[in-house]
Amino acid sequence: MNEEYPWCRRVGEGWQISVHAQPGAKKSEVVGPHGDALKIRIASPPVEGRANEALIAYLSTVLDMPRAGITLLRGESSRRKVVLIASSDFDPVRLLTSKR
């Protein structure tokens, strides 16, 4: 983790992002830091993995990268998730300034 963005850290494969997910929201959006996680609202109910799929799709759109480059590592049935962004040139600011 780094001091400026405690919710993300560089790993060998790319970046790990700690996410506090809020499923069932009106629209998908990044809210901002939430302790040592990044709070993201997801416009999908937490039923049968749909919110996880919607989270991956949302991150794919915001980061303009293929879904295959984004993997849910932990937290499949929890609000607290760890996502791997398989990109060496990922910039955390892109998530904080996203308007999609």
Query: What would you give as the CATH superfamily?
Result: YggU-like
Strand share of the residues?
35-45%
Top CATH class: Alpha Beta
Q: Largest beta sheet, briefly?
A: 6 strands, mixed
Overall domain count: 1
Give the CA-based shape: globular
Rounded to an integer in angstroms, the radius of gyration calculated over CA atoms is: 12 Å
Number of strands: 6
Named CATH architecture: 2-Layer Sandwich
State the helix count: 2
Relative helix content: 10-25%
Q: Order of helices and strands, N to C?
A: EEEEHEEH
Uncertain residue segments:
none
Average pLDDT figure: 91
Task: Using brief descriptors, characterize the structure shown.
100 residues, alpha+beta, 37% strand, Conserved Hypothetical Protein Mth637, Chain: A, single chain
